[in-house]
Amino acid sequence: MSEQNYTVNTPYGLTTPSIQALVAAGRAQQPALLKVGIFVSPGFMPMDINGAQSVFTIAGAEIYLIWKHKELVEGYIGWPTMPTMTFDECPDDLDVLVVGMVPPEVIEDPAVIRFFADKGRKAKYVIGTCYGSLMLGTAGLLEGKRATSNSNVVPMLPDVGATPVGGSEVVIDGNIYTSGPATGSFDASLRVLQALRGEELAALVELAIEYDPRPPFGTGSPELAGAEMTGIAQSMTAPLNQLYHAAAKRGYAVYQALQTGR
User: Fold this and answer.
1) Boundaries of every domain in the chain
2) DSSP label of 9
3) Dihedral sign from CA coordinates of 190, 132, 177, 25
4) Which residues are the active-site residues?
5) In this structure, are residues 149 and 155 in contact, taking their beta carbons and an 8 Å threshold?
6) pLDDT confidence band for 262 (50 / 70 / 90)
7) Which residues of 9-29 are buried (b: 16+ CB within 10 A; e: fewer)?
8) Contacts of 82 (CB under 8 A, 6+ apart)
9) For 226, left (φ over 0), alpha (ψ -120 to 50), or beta?
10) Which of these CATH numbers, 3.40.640.10, 3.40.190.10, 3.40.50.300, 3.40.50.880, describes 30-212+221-261?
């Protein structure tokens, strides 16, 4: 058998004619292409952005993977990712800005805080999943707003100006959509797509990806898992959560200092 010849060049590398045709067919149905910026960084959590990438790609959007530089970063873990757009290249008219879990070092990085404080206020919709809600908070985007995250982060949200909301539902406050981890990225993205393009398209995309979670063990929240298992999980992540809490408070102080200095 002869080796397959991948002959379609894109701005990011080789792909196949079948995928190009699929993308073109989806985009032909849209009045205008949505511009979706997905934040990536060293140590980002892929599962927290995969839902957004899946939902908005199926909807025919242009996807930008945004970081300071166009240099290979490693998602957590063994997930090499090449950003496609720098902070300076990011347009002011994003339809959606997405952030999932990123490390504490990134949450308190002044350059990252400035980026979110600027582009987050200009984007039509903003999605924060899991620890990504803390990133929105350190950039002042959650001040006076209701927000959620994973169960470990919810108690931290008041320290970045937010009103915390527990539970697993997507919390919508204005144009800010926050959610818990993993499937929360799909849930929030489908809701934002509904707001941008209507329920019919959002429902069709949900069907196209056959999004119908069936967790095998029924332990996906502290309430479902029970006190003993939750205690074990929380003890495992306690040192990391302390780092996150301290970084979020320092980052929020950086944002406040930037506002005072204007």
Assistant:
1) 30-212+221-261
2) E
3) negative
4) 130
5) no
6) low
7) eeeeeeeeeeeeeeeeebeee
8) 12, 65, 70, 71, 72, 73
9) left
10) 3.40.50.880
Tell me the per-residue pLDDT of 222-247, one tens digit each, with 9 for 90 and over: 999 999 999 999 999 999 999 999 99
> Which residue type, as a one-letter code, is found at position 202?
A
Residue 149, CB half-sphere, CA atoms under 13 Å: how many?
A: 26
Q: Which of 142, 148, 82, 87 is nearest to 119 (CA)?
A: 87
Dist CA 101 CA 46 (whole Å)? 8
122 neighbors 94 (Cβ within 8 angstroms): yes
Strands (DSSP E) contained in 59-135 are 62-66, 73-75, 79-81, 96-99, 125-129
Q: Is the pLDDT of residue 159 over 90?
A: yes
| HSE-CB for 64 with a 13 A CA cutoff | 23
Q: One-letter amino acid identity for 73?
A: V
Residue whose C-alpha is closest to residue 66's, from 120, 130, 15: 120
Distance CA 56, CA 91 (A): 17
Q: What is 12-45 written as a DSSP string?
A: TEEE-HHHHHHHHHHHHT-SS--EEEEE--TT--
CB 6 within 8 A of CB 16: yes
pLDDT tens by residue, 77-132: 999 999 999 999 999 999 999 999 999 999 999 999 999 999 999 999 999 999 99
